[in-house]
Design a protein that fits this description.
Chain A: This is Lipoprotein. Chain A: It comes from Archangium violaceum Cb vi76. The structure holds 2 protein chains of 2 kinds. By secondary structure, chain A is mostly helical. Chain A has 9 helices and no strands. The chains are: A mainly alpha, B mainly alpha.
Chain lengths: 170, 184
């Protein structure tokens, strides 16, 4: 019970501070990054939070807008806004990089995952040309015309697994 | 009398791990990397980092002439071995969970492993935060106490029933009040 309470508390806190990973609620404000860095004990992160008050209030709105664009699949618009906001100092370079990585992941097609992962049992090859974003949309809209729910779930897991593993083996 | 082969020293193991990691992230060097990891694992089958890293690497590696199921069996064996020899440490437990969830498409088998990994990570987080706050309280500068107070808020919410956290939060607040950083 204690574990679950703590897990839920962390999840609620991270969502509130902008570190939730759920697509629709994700917010990456500079404030959130600093809070995590501060909690982690990074040198100067806690103090830096105060001095960035102004950036935070401006950056928060822009950041939320960009995450919303990404969540809606408007990647080109998001990319323009990321570049402009980073250049103007409204979002940190780190946040801009995270946003870029998220776009890369969402635009990854199932056929782009490594060959080994494509050989899993019941690999849904008809989704090969579909991106993670499209697959997520089909799941959300319960659109099973192209693939069954189980196939869509497997496709989603495979694309996310390759991204996670690539990050680990770097 | 047969001479027992000597175990490699810690330095030798770390050097071999460093060698195995060479070329990380470079796809064209992956097969060579796999070969070096396999040698290391064969020589030191209880060396968790090598087991875990090889298990991950093989999921991204297309080895010519290796039958798919055989490759998956090897990966599962490596990850299960990493779980056991590490005393069920969080990282290998979660990695095995992802393997079963994705490659074996079994969320049922993965879920208890994710839960176990989360529970162990939380225990580590509780220890780390308590230690961090204690160090900041002992440092007792304006900046360190401010950091301790800020983390106190988060830590109390995440671990409301932890005596360790409550104790150090109490110390941080009392010290901050004593030093005039917080109103009594």
């Amino acid at each position: 019970m204690r574990t679950w309470k703590a897990l839920l508390a962390i999840s609620a806190l991270l969502s509130a501070t902008g570190c939730g990973h759920a697509e629709a609620v994700r917010r990456e404000e500079p404030e959130a990054g600093l809070r995590v860095e501060c909690a982690r004990g990074d040198e100067g992160a806690c103090g830096a939070e105060e001095s960035r008050e102004e950036t935070r209030s401006k950056g928060g709105t822009v950041s939320a807008r960009i995450w919303a664009l990404i969540a809606q699949g408007q990647f080109a618009e998001a990319q323009v806004l990321i570049a402009e906001s980073a250049a103007a100092g409204l979002i940190t370079q780190q946040t801009a990089a995270r946003m870029g990585e998220r776009i890369t992941l969402l635009t990854t097609r199932l056929g782009q995952v490594p060959a080994t992962l494509q050989r899993v049992k019941d690999f849904p090859s008809q989704l090969r040309e579909h991106s993670l974003f499209q697959i997520k949309q089909m799941l959300e809209n319960k659109d099973f015309t192209l693939a069954t729910q189980a196939q869509l779930k497997l496709a989603e897991k495979l694309i996310e697994q390759q991204e996670r593993l690539m990050e680990k083996v770097q | 009398m047969t001479k027992t082969p000597l175990h490699p020293t810690v330095e030798e193991l770390l050097e071999k791990l460093r060698e195995a990691r060479e070329g990380r992230g470079v796809e064209s060097l992956r097969l060579e990397q796999v070969r070096r990891y396999r040698e290391l694992v064969a020589e030191s089958p209880t060396f968790t980092p090598a087991l875990l890293e090889l298990g991950r690497l093989l999921q991204l590696t297309d080895e010519p002439g290796v039958e798919t199921e055989k490759a998956f069996v090897e990966i599962q064996r490596l990850l299960e071995q990493a779980v056991e020899v590490s005393g069920r440490a969080a990282a290998p437990v979660v990695e095995l969970g992802y393997f079963l969830d994705t490659i074996r498409n079994s969320s049922e088998k993965a879920t208890p492993l994710y839960e176990e990994g989360a529970r162990k990570t939380l225990e580590t987080l509780e220890d780390a935060w308590a230690g961090l706050m204690r160090a900041w309280v002992h440092e007792r500068t304006k900046e360190s106490l401010k950091k301790a107070l800020e983390l106190s808020e988060l830590a109390e919410k995440v671990f409301p029933d932890s005596g360790r956290i409550q104790g150090v939060v109490h110390d941080a607040r009392n010290t901050a009040i004593h030093d005039g950083l917080l109103k009594p």
